[in-house]
Write a structure and sequence with these properties.
- By secondary structure, this protein is α+β, with helices and mostly antiparallel strands.
- About 30% of the residues lie in helices and about 20% in strands.
- The chain contains 3 helices and 5 strands, in the order αβββαββα.
- It has a 5-stranded antiparallel β-sheet with strand order 1-2-3-5-4, covered by helices on one side.
- About 20% of the residues are buried.
């Protein structure tokens, strides 16, 4: 059983900030930023791609609601909402979840860097994805 399932089953403690019949949200024990929260479906799905549409839609509604609440209460200046799908993309716990990362300063415990890859042929990618 994964660690998130143990939290959902109340087998291990968590700092839960929201719970309903479908979703639980709790503070990440490895706070990258103040208020870093995980939004997790109670039923086990490995990634967001495995979630039924109704669960995924509800999860996003809860994520939006909690992000607004966190922003207001912490006076954060911005936020990131992040999902990592599979190990190659940084997923550590194989249970679908969203990260809410309130932001206070540009360089703090969480930094996203994107670098342009000029070797990608956009016409080839479009052809692949549309045919």
């Amino acid at each position: 059983m994964c660690i998130f399932c143990k939290i959902i089953n109340h087998e291990i403690p968590s700092y839960t900030i929201y719970e309903d019949e479908t979703i639980i949200a709790f503070l990440d024990i490895a706070q990258a930023t103040y208020g870093h929260t995980l939004v997790v479906p109670k039923k086990h799905y490995d990634t967001l791609l495995d979630c039924p549409e109704d669960v995924l839609c509800h999860m996003m509604k809860v994520t939006q609601m909690l992000t607004k609440q966190i922003m207001e209460k912490t006076q954060a200046k911005g936020f990131n909402i992040l999902n990592n799908g599979y190990e190659i993309a940084g997923q550590v716990i194989m249970h679908a979840h969203m990260h809410i990362l309130p932001r206070y300063e540009e360089k703090e415990g969480f930094v996203i860097e994107m670098h342009e890859n000029k070797d990608i042929d956009l016409a080839q990618v479009q052809e692949l994805l549309t045919h």
